[in-house]
């Protein structure tokens, strides 16, 4: 859309105060926004600087000089807090006079508090600096005359552009390397929760780079949507500058709602989705452009020699890949005989061939398919379904091919429900990707597990569909099951296979949530999972999907510990599905180590403990692999009130993360109290699985000393944890984040042996200590605790009983949950 230029409102005088007042009026005009405001601000600034320069040149007696805008200002795009990028060009005359001229221009700018990036050079010096510094060369490509000798500016522009085109074969690979390094450092704009609108991949810097590539005449970016995407990012940056009052390009979480409101958008998620869509357009244009640059440079270096050898022109070699699909110049293109208007499967066949070959699909081929391919019939023919599965099973090569199809709207045409998850942000910091990219990443991860399942096609399809429900209100697993049935039927799966895919989608979180939050020794736990899964074949697929989903979520979502728990649960469920009954848990006899600690605690009247590292997972490298299984902490302590919160508090003080905790009374027949007066009051055995947040584990002696002090009241744990929490909240990455309130529920039919209380809350130092205090106050006994933390979210399950060891009545359990939630709020 072409914007209408509205003249900037004139200001009373050419001095700083007149310019400042006119600038403020312009920024406060609600009717002026977007390109109109940016160009108006640039024009207003031009007029002020022209007046400054003209007066200064007369005063200093300098001739043959010009004031030139470069970079973003050179393009006439001034955001409210943008730097002024200025170059003072001169013909090499009196250095003192040139310096005086520069001072008379720069100081008024500084006096207004405007950010200034300035330089003073002759045209020869400017060309020399550009030849040495690629970033300077890029800025000069946008040079624009403001005041002074127009011939000096025009001469420099012509020379710089000629240099750029002559040096393009050398400079463009350097520029590409810079872009790749910046992307590795800043991340991809289309996936970041707090993106840098300028420096991240797909941001404003990349849009500027594409202009520079086009200026080289070697290649040009796909134009469709590119200017609109760039304008949208500039509009967001403008709103960010006006909202914060700062020259920032980072769209921080705490500012997104205000920026969205300033742009007239519904909410922060709508804002992020628009940012992601713009970034995706720019990033894809970059991929296509750099591929074309590489192709042109390779052709320039090879073909002249080849032509000379063959004595004439050579036709590009074309290698058949599939029906209607060939490889040419390192890209997948359509064969000359291909007829997209007659072959509805051709888009999927071309995509599958490209992914299997590890080649990109040419832009021309994708656009021709998007323009001419006829829709697939519903349900799809078997060939189309097989080609989709082949595409999903190609591993990492799937991603660029999928992105190419999506850029031209082919994915949404094939799978209409894709539109609801496309570019949808995920606010949970555990997630690395947007919903749509996470789905593709899950399929990529699942492709590595296709040899361990009997139906790879069902695994890959479920991986692609498992989070489709996130585009709808309510529980995404429940909504996703309905969508998965519809999509799987549309794709052409048989009814039984549709049922399996729907079950996988409905229960894709079941294994990991059960394994990390429930007591696997409880028959009710295993039976509930077996009933939900239904068959060993589905269990096998669900196990693979669980791991693929977690690996595609982010590094915090999967570990050797979680993998071991899930594998244990799968083994127990498989036995039940094979006909075995889950064994009722029998109180295990204390191990020799536990018995030794219990006797020592009983004899001394104080806590004793031991730390014992757990073995690595098979084949795991302790240094480079996933996190180890943790450390077993055994504690024996004379039974007394406050044991659970005391132990939890001491562990939090020592920065130990608790994963599981089991508490039980030890039977010590014939034991006598520490003072020899007769039988004691009993001993509690606590079996905890812990891991150090960072650094080495604390010494057992230090833990014991602090535990003794915590139990006798001489160690003020709440005060120590409050101090840590204050430091935790000051962390810049947490500042401004609005955490939802905690939620405590009673898990229905969680166990026949105990009541399961589930706590969902913001993770913070001492959370388990506070929960323990609240449960103690509610006069319930904790049999075991299962702690799971994903990013900033803690989901903990506590198996509790009444004083006599029986599950709590429903009313009492609900009251305990309400009390605990109130304490955490």
Give the amount of beta strand, in percent: 5-15%
Please state the CA-atom Rg, rounded to the nearest Å: 33 Å
Treating each run of at least 4 consecutive H or I residues as one helix, how many helices?
A: 32
Mean pLDDT: 87
The stretches of 5 or more residues where confidence is low (pLDDT under 50) are 1-12, 616-628, 672-680, 732-737
Quaternary organization: single chain
Helix content: 40-55%
Q: Which structural class matches the secondary elements?
A: alpha+beta
Shape: globular
Number of strands: 15
Biggest β-sheet, characterized? 8 strands, antiparallel
Distance, first to last CA: 50 Å
Spatial strand order of the main sheet: 8-9-11-10-14-15-13-12
EC number: 2.7.7.59, 3.1.4.-
Protein name: Bifunctional uridylyltransferase/uridylyl-removing enzyme
GO molecular function, one term: [protein-PII] uridylyltransferase activity
Cofactor: Mg(2+)
General description of the model:
- Keywords: Hydrolase, Magnesium, Multifunctional enzyme, Nucleotidyltransferase, Repeat, Transferase.
- Its EC number is 2.7.7.59, 3.1.4.-.
- Pfam families: ACT (PF01842), GlnD_UR_UTase (PF08335), HD (PF01966).
- InterPro entries: ACT-like_dom_sf, ACT_dom, HD/PDEase_dom, HD_domain, NT_sf, PII_UdlTrfase/GS_AdlTrfase, UTase/UR.
- The protein is of the alpha+beta class.
- Helices cover 52% and strands 12% of the residues.
- The chain is built from 32 helices and 15 strands.
- The strands form 3 sheets. It has an 8-stranded antiparallel β-sheet.
- It is globular.
- Mean pLDDT is 87; it is low at 1-12, 616-628, 672-680 and 732-737.
């Amino acid at each position: 859309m072409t914007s209408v230029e509205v003249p900037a409102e004139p200001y009373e005088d050419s001095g700083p105060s007149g310019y400042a007042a006119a600038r403020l009026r312009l920024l406060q005009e609600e009717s002026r926004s977007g390109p109109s405001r940016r160009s108006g601000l640039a024009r207003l600034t031009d007029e002020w600087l022209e007046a400054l320069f003209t007066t200064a040149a007369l005063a200093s007696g300098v001739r043959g000089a010009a004031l030139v805008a470069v970079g973003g200002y050179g393009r006439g795009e001034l955001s409210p807090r943008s730097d002024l990028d200025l170059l003072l060009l001169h013909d090499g005359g009196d250095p003192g006079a040139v310096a005086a001229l520069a001072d008379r221009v720069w100081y008024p700018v500084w006096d207004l508090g405007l950010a200034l990036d300035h330089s003073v050079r002759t045209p020869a010096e400017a060309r020399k600096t550009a030849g040495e510094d690629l970033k300077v060369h890029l800025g000069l490509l946008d040079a624009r005359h403001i005041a002074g000798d127009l011939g000096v500016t025009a001469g420099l522009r012509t020379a710089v552009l000629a240099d750029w085109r002559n040096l393009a074969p050398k400079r463009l690979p350097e520029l590409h390397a810079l872009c790749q390094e910046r992307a590795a450092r800043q991340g991809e704009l289309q996936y970041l929760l707090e993106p840098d609108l300028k420096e991240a991949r797909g941001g404003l810097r990349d849009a500027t780079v594409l202009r520079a590539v086009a200026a080289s005449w070697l290649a040009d970016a796909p134009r469709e949507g590119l200017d609109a995407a760039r304008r949208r990012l500039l509009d967001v940056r403008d709103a960010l500058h006006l909202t914060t009052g700062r020259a920032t390009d980072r769209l921080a979480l705490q500012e997104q709602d205000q920026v969205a409101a300033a742009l007239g958008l519904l909410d922060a998620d709508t804002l992020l989705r628009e940012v992601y869509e713009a970034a995706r357009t720019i990033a894809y244009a970059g991929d296509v452009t750099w591929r074309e640059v590489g192709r042109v440079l390779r052709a320039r270096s090879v073909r002249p020699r080849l032509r000379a050898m063959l004595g004439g022109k050579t036709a590009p070699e074309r290698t058949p890949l599939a029906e209607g699909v060939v490889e040419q110049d390192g890209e997948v293109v359509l064969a000359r005989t291909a007829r997209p208007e007659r072959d509805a499967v051709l888009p999927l066949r071309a995509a599958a061939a490209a992914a299997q070959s590890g080649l990109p699909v040419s832009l021309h081929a994708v656009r021709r398919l998007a323009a001419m391919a006829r829709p697939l019939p519903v349900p799809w023919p078997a060939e189309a379904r097989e080609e989709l599965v082949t595409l999903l099973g190609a591993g990492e090569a799937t991603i660029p091919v999928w992105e190419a199809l999506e850029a031209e709207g082919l994915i949404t045409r094939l799978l209409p429900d894709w539109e609801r998850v496309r570019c949808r942000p995920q606010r949970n910091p555990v997630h690395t990707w947007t919903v749509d990219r996470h789905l593709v990443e899950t399929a990529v991860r699942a492709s590595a597990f296709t040899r361990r399942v009997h139906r790879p096609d069902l695994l890959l399809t479920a991986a692609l569909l498992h989070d489709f429900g996130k585009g709808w209100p309510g529980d995404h697993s429940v909504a996703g099951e309905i969508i998965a049935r519809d999509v799987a039927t549309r794709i052409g799966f048989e009814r039984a296979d549709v049922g399996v895919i729907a079950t996988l989608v409905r229960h894709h979180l079941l294994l990991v949530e059960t394994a990390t939050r429930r007591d696997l020794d409880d028959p009710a736990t295993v039976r509930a999972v077996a009933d939900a899964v239904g068959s060993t074949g589905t269990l096998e697929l669900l196990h693979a999907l669980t791991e693929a989903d977690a690996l595609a979520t982010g590094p915090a979502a999967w570990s050797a510990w979680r993998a071991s728990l899930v594998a244990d649960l799968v083994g127990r469920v498989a036995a039940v599905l094979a006909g075995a009954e889950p064994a009722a848990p029998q109180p295990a006899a204390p191990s020799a180590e536990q018995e030794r600690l219990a006797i020592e605690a009983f004899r001394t009247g104080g806590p004793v403990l031991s730390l014992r590292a757990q073995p690595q997972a098979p084949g795991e490298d302790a240094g480079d692999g996933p996190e180890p299984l943790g450390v077993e902490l055994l504690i024996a302590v004379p039974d007394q009130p406050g044991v659970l919160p005391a132990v939890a508090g001491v562990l939090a003080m020592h920065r130990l993360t608790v994963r599981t905790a089991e508490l039980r009374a030890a039977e010590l027949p014939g034991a006598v109290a520490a003072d020899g007066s007769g039988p004691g009051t009993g001993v509690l055995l606590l079996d905890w699985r812990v891991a150090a947040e960072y650094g080495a584990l604390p010494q057992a002696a230090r833990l014991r000393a602090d535990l003794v002090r915590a139990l006798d009241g001489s160690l003020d744990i709440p005060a120590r944890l409050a101090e840590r929490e204050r430091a935790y909240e000051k962390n810049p990455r947490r500042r401004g984040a609005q955490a939802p309130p905690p939620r405590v529920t009673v898990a229905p039919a969680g166990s026949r042996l105990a009541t399961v209380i589930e706590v969902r809350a913001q993770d913070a130092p001492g959370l388990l200590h506070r929960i323990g205090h609240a449960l103690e106050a509610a006069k319930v006994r904790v049999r075991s605790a299962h702690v799971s933390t994903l990013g900033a979210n803690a989901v903990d399950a506590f198996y509790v009983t009444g004083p006599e060891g029986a599950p709590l009545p429903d009313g009492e359990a609900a009251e305990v949950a309400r009390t605990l939630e109130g304490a955490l709020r």
